[in-house]
Amino acid sequence: MDDEPAIVARNLRKSYGGVAAVDGVDLTVRRGEVFALLGPNGAGKTTTVEILEGYRRRDAGEVSVLGTDPARADAAWRARIGIVLQSTGEFEDLTVREVVHHFAGFYPAPYPPDDVIAQVGLAGKANARTHGLSGGQRRRLDVALGIIGRPELLFLDEPTTGFDPEARVEFWDLIRGLIALGTTIVLTTHYLDEAEALADRIAVIAGGRVAAVASPADLGGRRNAPATVAWRSPEGEPRSEQTATPTALVAELSARLGGEIPGLTVTRPTLEDVYLTMIGSGGRA
Ligand code: ATP
């Protein structure tokens, strides 16, 4: 049973006013993996994810999420899913603790609310009213509400937008804790470092279709891409060469230059390099 994928989508389609937003998406998300969706604005990520969450009707295609068609899902299915949307509603005069306790009441087996408040780094704000939270603190509350129900499958839509760098790294640790508990995670993000840090596999979505699915290390043939070896000549001139065998080149240079190679660097294409090539952008993500 647990070998069954968490999500299977086949030939998913959705148009708005005759324009295809999702144009034949195929996806399989395995249980326990972090699956990231990357793609430019308007690529169809949110539409795809909302169909998987049961919040949007598809025009065509087949979908199974935790063994159920989300278009026909019930409350019991919904309780197994956690969702962190790009923004959530207002909670008027309630405090952080009150809101998290209130949401815990919707689920059959929630995590202890005060533990979740601490996990998302809001322990010091537990008694603060939510309307006084900063943008990043507000986002942490959104995450707390997404995970309070002990979800088997968690959808995170741009979860760290507005986080400072320290908060982002803390958030990644929180996600790693959920991964260790076996949670399956679908992560939509525009941050390539976030996808690289967290994802087992990345799907690049462009123009309503899946352009590629691979691990961060393999995406776009990155692992086998030529390396660039750069160094300085004895006269101090910058030199560089692309090669499939950088170790051999470094050994040869070391022999030629008599030991240490001045200014030596060996680099391979970054995730950003292959991503931008894949979506056909000249430097815009
Ligand atoms: P972003 O990174 O900006 O969040 P996205 O990849 O999530 O983008 P979608 O929100 O799925 O993209 O949008 C895909 C396309 O569908 C866009 O062209 C968008 O304008 C269009 N679209 C989305 N929702 C609607 C709607 N309710 N009515 C009409 N068009 C829509």
Task: Please give a quick description of this structure.
This protein has 285 residues and is an alpha/beta fold. The chain folds into 2 domains: 214 residues, P-loop containing nucleotide triphosphate hydrolases (Rossmann fold), CATH 3.40.50.300; 42 residues.
In spatial order, strands of the major sheet run 5-6-7-3-8-9
The computed structural class is alpha/beta
Shape: globular
Q: Which percent range fits the helix content?
A: 25-40%
| Bound small molecules, deduplicated | adenosine-5'-triphosphate
Instruction: Please give the alpha-carbon distance between the first and last residues.
Output: 38 Å
Gyration radius from CA atoms, angstroms: 23 Å
Q: What's the helix and strand layout?
A:
Layout: E1 7-16, E2 19-29, E3 34-38, H1 45-53, E4 60-65, H2 75-78, E5 81-84, H3 96-104, H4 113-119, H5 135-147, E6 153-157, H6 165-180, E7 184-188, H7 192-198, E8 201-206, E9 209-214, E10 227-232, E11 238-243, H8 246-257, E12 265-267, H9 271-278
Parallel strand pairs: 3-7, 3-8, 5-6, 6-7
Antiparallel strand pairs: 1-2, 1-4, 8-9, 10-11, 10-12
Adenosine-5'-triphosphate binds at residues 16, 21, 39, 41-47.
Q: What are its keywords?
A:
single chain; 285 residues; alpha/beta; Rossmann fold; 2 domains; 3-stranded antiparallel sheet; 12 strands; globular; binds adenosine-5'-triphosphate
Structural overview:
- With 285 residues, the protein is of the alpha/beta class.
- It has two domains: 7-220, Rossmann fold (3-Layer(aba) Sandwich), CATH 3.40.50; 226-267.
- The protein is built from nine helices and twelve strands.
- A six-stranded mixed sheet has the order 5-6-7-3-8-9, sandwiched between helices. It has a three-stranded antiparallel sheet with strand order 2-1-4, with helices on one face.
- The radius of gyration is 23 Å and the shape is globular.
- The model has no long low-confidence stretch (mean pLDDT 91).
- Residues 16, 21, 39, 41-47 line the site of adenosine-5'-triphosphate (ATP).
- The site of adenosine-5'-triphosphate (ATP) has 10 residues, from helix 1.
